[in-house]
Specification:
There is one protein chain. Helices cover 80% and strands 0% of the residues. The protein is mostly helical and 278 residues long. It is globular and about 55 Å long. 37% of the residues are buried.
């Protein structure tokens, strides 16, 4: 009797995420709409130039982010639909990584107050993606297997995440110093807020558990790698094409983010190959 109840509970728990999957589909559609508008309607961001709320450099960054958001949104919609049909935890893991990119991007737009005519949509995407992650992340921890990912791979990913912290935390703090000295936020203050207060601590927690060989963090680790890949791809692309838009190229930042994109893609492939379906 007890075994049957446990089986029924395990079957019912994934079904509880059906509503979250629908929420992710709606989030992906809103993100797709907003990103396409940012790409093809030049006045979406340029209207803010006149108010001084945004610079030409931020417009470039916003459009590059939109370019990456288009395939991410499509992939999230498809993944959410597949998960409703199949309840594969690998698909749920990919969903978490994809929506975390959308969360980050529209958190930036919301926090930095990019008051375009789409601002209310930005807020809706920010909120929906945040709640989606709140529902998905505990399930990823609960659904992780005890024996899937080899210790060596866990240690390698932990080292990679710690390397990100070792490189970017000092750089971000140094880049914040002029803003702190001037008692005024710079144009990238939203990035510093999200990274130093949310993203980097999350990487530290994941790395700590990976070093301890904690299997409960395996699926969350895979989701984090998808997030690293998509975000670094966006930043790396922006750094790479800056000279084409009249901005000086920062070779160090270009190298860092292209390297992070490649390495995160490799680790993502490795860990997803080790994950098993439900």
């Amino acid at each position: 009797m007890e075994i049957e109840m446990t089986k029924e509970k395990s079957k019912a728990e994934p079904s509880a995420l059906k509503g979250t999957s629908v929420l992710m589909m709606l989030t992906s559609l809103l993100a797709l709409l907003a990103s396409l508008a940012g790409i093809f309607s030049s006045d979406v961001y340029r209207d803010l130039i006149q108010t001084g709320a945004i610079t030409e450099y931020l417009i470039l960054g916003s459009v590059v982010q939109d370019i990456i958001t288009v395939p991410v949104s499509i992939a999230l919609f498809i993944s959410s639909f597949i998960y409703i049909k199949g309840k594969d935890r690998r698909v749920l893991t990919a969903m978490a990584g994809l929506v975390s990119y959308i969360f980050y991007g529209y958190a930036l737009f919301s926090i930095q107050g990019q008051y375009t005519r789409l601002y209310l949509i930005y807020l809706a995407i920010f909120g929906a993606s945040a709640y989606g992650l709140m529902f998905i992340v505990p399930r990823l921890i609960h659904m992780s297997s005890l024996t899937e990912v080899p210790r060596g791979l866990r240690r390698g990913i932990a080292g990679f995440l710690l390397l990100i912290l070792a490189v970017l935390v000092p750089v971000w703090i140094m880049r914040m110093q002029p803003d702190i000295a001037n008692r005024a936020p710079g144009e990238l203050y939203g990035v510093f807020v999200l990274d130093l207060a949310v993203v980097f601590p999350a990487f530290g927690i994941i790395a700590f558990n990976l070093i301890r060989n904690n299997a409960a963090i395996d699926l969350l680790t895979a989701a984090a790698l998808v997030k690293v890949f998509t975000l670094c791809l966006s930043v790396g692309l922006g750094e790479f094409i800056k000279p084409s838009f009249g901005f000086p190229q920062d070779m160090a930042m270009t190298f860092i983010f292209i390297t992070l994109t490649i390495v995160s893609a490799i680790f993502s492939v490795f860990i997803f190959r080790k994950l098993k379906a439900d």
